[in-house]
Design a protein that fits this description.
single chain, 291 residues, alpha/beta, TIM Barrel, 8-stranded parallel barrel
Length: 291
């Protein structure tokens, strides 16, 4: 099986440029203006796609948490109301869809429940993302697979047995598996980047990396270890309100991340030993003995 899939107009997999995703997620804090600014920052950085998150709050918030009160930018409100404040609906996603088309960048979303899949189908997304939290929701996996769209499966908080079970439902065709650790932010000793080559050995499909660490170096290392997709959260300011902001990358950092990934791709080469034309002058000047 070829270790590649098509996402929109891009081929993703071995031999292709790394597919770089800026996850806006819920870092817009319910503001369409923030979402536009984050899209602008992602476009300026040169990423390949932006990603949001789509939930039906009544389905995704556990009953015992719905009435829990918390301080938020919208006042002291219940957790269920807070989730509604963060959520984008039809009008907002129409604006996002039009804005991304104007900016010529692909967008898609993580889906947390089956109605969210039905909701997003009208936008003709290039793929779906299964968040780590939903890897064991087999009904959701079956609903996503029924769309016949490419699927990115994130694997944080999951055992290998659970990953195998999810892949058994999704199938390997049109699937990209993303290594992840679901800690925000994640300490380096728990990133376990060697899982990328492990997943490459086990599953004959493209393998990516969804990172929640602070800094950029480890995400670039993931590319060197074989990740064909890199996903990092993008934020306007890591000090903003929100659970994902501290594990996100600010606009200037995203520019550097894209640059580092593209340089790394060039530097990896093809694994075949060459004597480059640029070495010839040094060869003639420094080599004492010729075979």
């Amino acid at each position: 099986m070829a270790r590649e899939i098509r996402i929109g107009d891009r081929m993703v997999g071995d031999g292709y440029p790394t597919f770089i995703v800026a996850e806006i997620g819920i870092n817009h804090n319910g503001s369409l203006e923030n979402a536009r600014r984050l899209i602008d920052a992602a476009v300026h950085a040169g990423v390949d796609a932006v990603k949001f998150q789509k939930r039906t709050p009544e389905l995704c918030v556990p009953p015992d948490q719905r009435d829990q009160m918390r301080d938020t930018p919208w006042g002291y409100i219940s957790y269920l109301e807070y989730r509604h404040k963060l959520e984008f609906w039809e009008d907002e996603y129409r604006e996002i869809d039009n804005y991304c088309k104007e900016k010529r960048i692909s967008w898609f979303a993580s889906v947390w429940d089956e109605p969210s899949v039905d909701f997003l189908e009208s936008f003709d997304p290039p793929c779906y993302k299964i968040p780590s939290a939903s890897l064991t929701d087999l009904a959701l996996l079956r609903r996503v697979r029924a769309t016949n769209r490419p699927v990115i499966l994130s694997t944080g908080m999951s055992t290998m047995e659970q990953i195998h079970s999810a892949v058994g439902v999704l199938g390997l065709s049109n699937l990209l598996i993303a290594h992840a650790t679901s800690t925000y932010p994640c300490e380096p000793h728990e990133l376990n980047l060697r899982m990328i080559p492990t997943l490459r050995q086990v599953f004959p499909c493209p393998i990516g990396y969804s990172g929640h660490e602070v800094g950029l170096v480890t995400s670039v290392v993931a590319v060197a270890l074989g990740a064909c997709m890199i996903e990092r959260h993008i934020t306007l300011d890591r000090a903003m309100w929100g659970s994902d902001q501290a594990a996100s990358v600010e606009p200037g950092g995203f520019e550097r991340l894209v640059k580092y990934v593209r340089v790394t791709e060039q530097a990896l080469g093809d694994g075949v030993k060459h004597v480059y034309e640029s070495e010839q002058s040094s060869l003639k000047r420094l080599r004492r003995v010729q075979n």
